[in-house]
Amino acid sequence: MVMTDTTNKNLSYLAMDDEYVNPVLARSARIVAHKAKGSYIYDRNGDAYLDLSTGIAVNNVGHCHPKVVEAVKKQCEELIHTSVVVHHERYIELAKKVVEITPKTLNSAFFANSGAEAVEGAVKLARYVTGRPAVINFRGSFHGRTFMTMALTTSKLYYRENYEPLPGAIHTALFPYEYRSHYKGDTKKVIQESLEYIDMLFHQFINPAQVAAFIIEPILGEGGYVPAPEGFIKELRKIADEHGIMLIIDEVQTGFARTGKMFCIEYEGIEPDILVMAKGIAGGMPLSGFVSRRDITNKWPAGRHGTTFGGNPVSCAAALATIDVIQEEKLAERSAKMGADIMKRLKKFQESSKHLGDVRGKGLMIGLEFNDEKGAPSKEIADQVAAKCLEQKMIVLTCGQQGQVIRLIPPLNISDADAEKACDILEKAMKLK
Ligand SMILES: Cc1ncc(COP(=O)(O)O)c(C=O)c1O
Questions:
Q1: CA 240 to ligand 1 center in whole angstroms
Q2: Ligand 1 center to residue 290 CA distance, Å?
Q3: Is 0.90 surpassed by the pTM of this model?
């Protein structure tokens, strides 16, 4: 039964949600969004929430950026859908743009709808072209919720449990997670341990000649906002080259200026074989894609992969506008600078905090890892901090292999005043008794 609206106008909708929406859909906050602008979401009561979640790292240019809205409106009046029946202008323009902004050897783009679908496509490409079955992923990774991407996901058992059997030929290597490593403080050894683990896989589990691809997030996202230490992916590139293995970089969460560069892999200065993107690409419209080299994609015959909705004109128009905004507003530079300032402030706070164990990240992709009294990962504390932020009308999400990390992913054009306000709210929330 639908409840009558009284003073809280969210309630009738929450009641309908409880009645009609599949309960598998987990929401982080019981707020009914009515509209959003910039860094704020407004609920049905008109209450404003400072949004440090950006729809899980999607609204990099802020909610409803006027240039994105205008591009979508204009496109809707001209052409909404064609699928692969004919070519369309926005797809071609976006492919050109994506080739321009990704590492220089990547020059052949494909667009899909979601991050998971793009990862699936990237793995299909690697398997088809190499003729090899196996994929090596990394512990703590998240690549999606379809069967293949679920099999590649090891950030939490929760995402895989009771869905077996999952696709096979996946071997999981050790992600160099320094904060929880017994070599903490010695980054070289942390890297070395992960590289030796791959060597072990090659000797005990899978012949490298059977491996189609490595797939890695440059910063574990769902797995806890853990950046791969500098130099690790470069080493991975060398191993991949030695054995004819493709290197797939999953930039679904790290892309589009989130980490202070257009793509996080730029920090490593290496060229992947395939780069996967989604989330921040289209200002909130559903779109994803992957870009590879023409010499690779020329070996994938037309029709061996495809999609009905992927790369539809409206999403492509939104992506073109979004990329323009990122470039015009210099959001990569802003993300790098503001991220460094926020981390500096939170590291200072950490000095006097019993529970805030680690502050890490790149640009405006910042993770705060919480510990209990014994130094063990504490989901309970992370949840408490998130709840206290929400009481102060600020939305933050948790992540991490045990839910012990708070992730800060504000719009990249959040104002200085709102960034300051966010830090004030967080510090107040982190002052636990
Ligand atoms: C790194 C990474 N890859 C893939 C995905 C899957 O994206 P989607 O939820 O759009 O399928 C996600 C989603 O969080 C992600 O963070």
A1: 24
A2: 13
A3: yes
